[in-house]
């Protein structure tokens, strides 16, 4: 059980940890991304407002899909009815979303492979999270910019941002902010558990920043023994 000193004020579901099976053995710790959020947020919503409630609900939803391994431990969704729709594609069930991981679920697309910046079907849950933890070591902050309607169908606009301070798929860090904006529609039940989430955004906004870093090079020793030849690392084969 979380104490007053270490409680996460944005993710109250972390206070109820009894019998929860955590992916990495223990409840997650969000102090770094919380600091990033507080330093970079463009909106400060009144405590108890609909905007703050939705903002914290989405943060908690993301935490559960990233760190819990049993749907029976989830507090933020109705597992039997849950569907995630991204950019108008076919909905993913709670089981599918948990298996894929939130990054892979949100980054699935129907572009021809040669035009895909990131190939979710070639990534596991772990590799997808490792890729973005490496690229954005301080975390990937999320805020509500506007809420257009109240429950049970909540329409909202959001912003997602972080700083590209680590490597991403063979690209060197730039140290610059990467971000994207999007729209969402959240359908909730009488207990405010999510039944459906629709997300609309342009992945190019995110990957434009991550692929801006120059491709890293690696030294390759030639047959003659010298190591002057260099080969570019392919950004999609690591």
Automatic annotation (TrEMBL):
Biased composition (Polar residues): 218-238
Protein name: Pathogen-related protein
Gene3D superfamilies, per database record: 3.10.450.50
Chain segments carrying region Disordered: 212-238
SUPFAM superfamilies: NTF2-like
InterPro entries, per database record: NTF2-like_dom_sf (IPR032710), Pathogen-related_defense (IPR053218)
Lineage top rank: taxon: Eukaryota
